[in-house]
Specification:
Butyryl-Coa Dehydrogenase, subunit A, domain 1, alpha+beta, globular, binds flavin-adenine dinucleotide, Butyryl-CoA Dehydrogenase, subunit A, domain 2, about 50% helix, 3 domains, about 15% strand, about 425 residues, 10 strands, Butyryl-CoA Dehydrogenase, subunit A, domain 3, 16 helices
Amino acid sequence: MFDFSADGAFQEKLDWMKEFIRTEVEPLDLLFTHGGDPYDTKNKKSRAILKPLQAQVKAKGLWACHLGPELGGPGYGQLKLALMNEIIGRSYWAPTVFGTAAPDTGNAEILAMFGTEEQKRRYLQPLLDGDIVSCFSMTEPQAGADPKEFICAARREGDEWVISGEKWFSSNARHAAFFIVIAMTNPEAPAHARFSMFMVPAETHGIKIIRNVVAMEEVEELDSGIHGYVRYEDVRVPLDAMLGGQGEGFKVAQARLGGGRVHHAMRTVGQCNRAFEMMLERAVSRCTQGKRLADHQFVQGFIADSAIDLEQFRLLVLKTAWIIDTQPHGAARTHIAMCKVTMAKVYHDIVQRALHLHGSLGATHETPLAAMWMAVPQLALADGPSEVHKAQVAKAFLKNVQPASGLFPSEHILPKREAARKRYAHILDAPEVAA
Ligand SMILES: Cc1cc2nc3c(=O)[nH]c(=O)nc-3n(C[C@H](O)[C@H](O)[C@H](O)COP(=O)(O)OP(=O)(O)OC[C@H]3O[C@@H](n4cnc5c(N)ncnc54)[C@H](O)[C@@H]3O)c2cc1C
């Protein structure tokens, strides 16, 4: 009933990916800075290396595999995609080389689901081909985790919508060919029907990037990052720029996060694998007090805890992928939230242990662990803080639970023992046993 192996043909693809990423793609992580480079379609040097690599991936039939057959993808289920993302996760550039970089994947998903034929023609195809990148503009300076607090608004004027407001952490704003912006269109409606989604070409008059916010693991100069603090100053778009129906902004936003979270979780498994391998190598390479680090029990504890954490996390993600593949839409919601929470914790713990075992070298920029460590806080924030996902998990488990019928819990031993005694009284009290 359970099988953890990939079939032969698919395993061959995974093996090819492993080797290709190690030899051809990981060097890009070292040649270009972290941050926006994979998204910078105008950087001639990186494009000159990237395009032939993307062509190899396309020729192998491994380009943008998250897409369904209707969009030219192979229709792999989530389990296969999870195994692929585990390998892709090892390298910062690999998602771009394989056509699976966020936020473009999620943006393509909602365009495919809710876009008009014209929107798909204009935005979707070049996005799928990797010719442009895009931006998802939702979080605001005063509100992120609770979208009900968003105030950026769009008002109707004749044949146009006019968008006004500010957005924060709009990743890739400065490289994007278009923005998907959520704005309030129905202020009087209930919260879930108050917002709508808009397709806004980057060249539209009134889009101002106040600053390009730098995440910790990116280059150090302020204002050279990839997360746009964006002001929409009376940005005018035609009525047909709406993505989905009026008031359906939350519905469209929700639709983009399911599969993407599982892929992100499995890419994090890939990063954890890398940190864990570094931990193992260090443990057998360095000696102290006359023996290898690996022979000290504290270090063995680090290794055992990391192996166990990683295995549990990986199995959780694979089970979640399996639920998506085999059960009705929405059945994996709680598991996806569990993955999101576990991902941040396991990544933190494994990277911290790996870094610590590397001693002073671990505290430098001279190993990949530095960028991993600085990315730790993001994992518990992007796509919503862990607290919100934990609350969602708890509510799902609490939903159908009834209160105890009496003063004591239903597992209270005294009445249960009395019931057990009654259940078997005919045997316990039978003369041949009682005697
Ligand atoms: C690397 C990265 C990339 C991102 N890219 C994008 C993007 O492309 N587009 C975009 O729109 N946004 C993006 N974001 C923003 C992201 O979606 C928000 O950071 C996230 O929704 C949290 O919002 P916030 O940062 O405003 O934190 P807040 O909402 O201010 O939350 C701060 C803290 O308050 C606590 N908290 C909040 N809500 C609750 C609750 N219900 N219960 C208990 N505690 C709570 C938590 O401790 C939380 O960490 C990105 C973020 C990161 C880190």
